Amino acid sequence: MQISDEIFADKVLKSEQPVLVDFWASWCPPCKMMQPLVDRLHDELTGTAEIVSINIDQNPQTAAEYKIAGVPTFVSFRNGQEVTRKTGALTENQLRKMIDTASEQNQAA
Amino acid sequence: MSESTACHNANQTCWSCPAVEFKGHVDFRACGQAAFRKAAEGQLVVECKRRPEIGYFDPTSITFEHCTEWKKTDSGYLLDGMRVLILGMDGYLGWPLALKLAKLGCKVYGIDNLLRRKLVSERGAQSVIPIETMENRVKAANEELGVEINFQEIDLMDRDALFAYIKEVQPESIVQFAEIPSAPYSMADVDKAVDTIQNNVVGTLGLLFGVRDHAPDASIIKLGTMGEYGSPLTGRPLFEGLFPGDAVLQYKGEEWSLGGELTPRDPVSFYHVSKVQGTFSVYEACKYWWLRSYDVMQGVIYGNHSDELAAHPSLATRFDIDEWWGTVVNRFVAQAVIGMPLTIYGSGNQLRGYITLKDAMQCITRLIAAPPEPGQYDVVNQVTDVMSVKQIAQTVATIGAEFGLDTEVQRIENPRVEAEEHPYEVIHDKLSENFGFASESSFEDEVRGMFEVLTKPEAVARIKEQESKLFPTTKWSGESAKLKVLETWKPEIKDKAA
C-alpha cells in the first residue's frame, strides 16, 4: 500500500495500530524485490498492524524528515513515535519481529 | 480488466519517459544510498523536452495512456517517432529489430562495423539465406515497407565516432547487440578470446560513458544471455537476475534476506564471461550515473521469420549454421536438409531455454516501450521453451520427415566443458506479467518454416558448400584432436494421424 508526503501523518503518526513503513526507491533492486512480500504482509495483518510503502524520490519531505540515507529502510511506529528501524532487505521473520516489537511498545507505555 | 486491450505500459508516468528532464533538487546519489535531501528545497518537478510549452510539472501526474506523445501500438504505447539506436544493426537480431521498430513508427538509427560478415567469411562459411549489403537493405526497407532507417558504418570501439553519433542522434532508447556472440569462437585461441572480451566488455564500457555524457535519459536494452547463469547442479531455480524478496540465506542459525541481490553467475565460455562482465558494467553505471537498463538474459535464439523480413527477399536477415556462428536449432535443420547426421555434443541431455527470432523481437520492443525509471537496473529472462538437445534433434527429424527427409542423429564427444545431466528450472515471468508478452511462435511451426525455406535448391546448395564447417572442431581444452562419434541412430518418426 503506497502512501505519500500528504497523508503520512494521518496514516502513520495518527494510527492506532503499530505501523511499519517501507521507504523505497525504484532504482533500488532489493526494494523492488521486497515489494511482493511487503504487500502480502500488509494484506495478512490488516486489522492488527499497518504496513505502508513510501517512495523516497516522489516524497522527499518524509524521506528527509526521517533522515533516510539508504534504501530500503524499514521504520516501525507506535502512537506516532518511531520504535525501531533497519536498513537493507529483511526476511519475513525479521519484518514480523519489527512489527511485534512495535506492538509491544503500546503495552509498555 | 481486459488483458487484450490494456497496454502493459499504459500506467507508466513521465517518471520513466526519456523525453523528460528532471529539474529541482533531485539529488542523485552514489552507491545505492539515498542522499539526505533538505525538504525546504521544494518539490520535484520535470520539464518535457518534447512539449516545453507545458512548463514544470509533477512527473507522476501524466501517464503514457494520457500523454499525447505516446501512441498506442500492439506492442504497448510507444513514443511517437521514438529515436532508437541499434548497435549491431547488421546482425541476425539487429536487422529484424530495425525493421520492426521502423514499421511501428520509431525513428531508427543504427551502427555496425560489419565484423560478423567478415568473421563468418574467414571461417569459410556464409549466411545460408543470401543477405544484401546494408545500403541495399536500407533502400529495400524504404521501397518495400515505406520506412526510413538510418545506418552508419561505425565500430563500437571507435569511441570518438560512437560518442559523436550518440550526441547527434539523441537516442531515447539504445539496444546493445554489438557483441561477438560465439562461445566456441571465444574458446578457439587466445587472440579470439581477447577479441571477444575486448569488443564485448570494453565496447560496452565505452558505450556506457557515451550514454552518460550524451544521452543519459535513454534506456539501455543490453543483450545478455541465459548462459550467464550456467546450470547449477543443485537445481536452484534461475531467477530473473536478482533474488526475489523472500529468498533467504541461512547459516549457523542466522538468516539474511537475499532480496534484490544479483543471482550467482556461472558462465560456460569466455564469451559467456564477457556477458557477465557486461552485466556488472551496466549494473554499476546505473548506480553511479542514474542510467536505466534492462539486461536481457536471452535463451538460444532460432528461426528466421518475421512479418517484416518476409516482405521481400532483400530484407532477409542472416542465417548462420556453422559450428561457430550458427545456433543449434538452425544448424540441425540445415544438417537434416543435406542428409548430414544432426550433431549432438555429449549426452544430448543438456537443457537450455530457447526463443524464436519473432518472439525475441516482440520482447525487445515491449521493453523499449516500457522504459525503466532513472537509476533502475532490471533483468528479464527472455525464454519461451526449455528443451534438451536430444528433444530438439527428435523434433527436427520428425518434421524433416514431412519434407521427405530421412534424418540420422549422432552423439559426438563433447567439445565443451559443461554439465551434460543437470536440472534446469528457468523463471521467466516478467516479460509476460509486466510487459504483456505473449508468444506468437511454436517450436514445431518455426522448424517447419525453416525447412520450407532451406529445402529450396539455392539454400541446399549454400548449405552443402559449408558442409565441412558444421561438424565441430573447437574444443574448450584447446586440443586439436578430432572429436569421436559416440553413437549414431535413426530417431523413431511416429506417423501422424491422417
What does this structure look like?
The complex is a heterodimer of chains A (109) and B (498). Chain A has 109 residues and is an alpha+beta fold. Chain A has a single domain (8-86), classed as Glutaredoxin (3-Layer(aba) Sandwich). Chain A is 42% helix and 23% strand. Chain A has helices spanning 8-13, 29-45, 60-65, 92-108; strands at 19-24, 50-55, 73-78, 81-87. Chain A has a 4-stranded mixed β-sheet with strand order 2-1-3-4, with helices on one face. The longest helix of chain A has 17 residues, at 29-45. Chain A is globular and about 35 Å long. The mean pLDDT of chain A is 93. Chain B is of the alpha/beta class. Chain B has 2 domains: 17-62, no CATH class; 63-489, Rossmann fold (3-Layer(aba) Sandwich), CATH 3.40.50.720. Helices cover 31% and strands 17% of the residues of chain B. Chain B contains 13 helices and 19 strands. Chain B has helices at 94-103, 115-122, 134-145, 159-169, 183-188, 190-214, 270-289, 328-337, 357-369, 389-402, 430-433, 443-454, 457-465, and strands at 20-22, 46-48, 70-73, 76-79, 83-87, 107-112, 149-153, 173-176, 219-223, 248-251, 254-257, 292-298, 300-302, 342-345, 351-356, 377-382, 385-388, 409-412, 485-489. In chain B, the strands form 6 sheets. Chain B has a 7-stranded parallel β-sheet with strand order 7-6-5-8-9-12-16, with helices on both faces. In chain B, strands 13-15-17 form a 3-stranded mixed β-sheet. Chain B has a 3-stranded mixed β-sheet with strand order 14-18-19. In chain B, helix 1 crosses helix 9. The longest helix of chain B is centred in the middle third of the chain and has 25 residues, at 190-214. The radius of gyration of chain B is 23 Å and the shape is globular. The interface between A and B is large, with 34 and 39 residues.
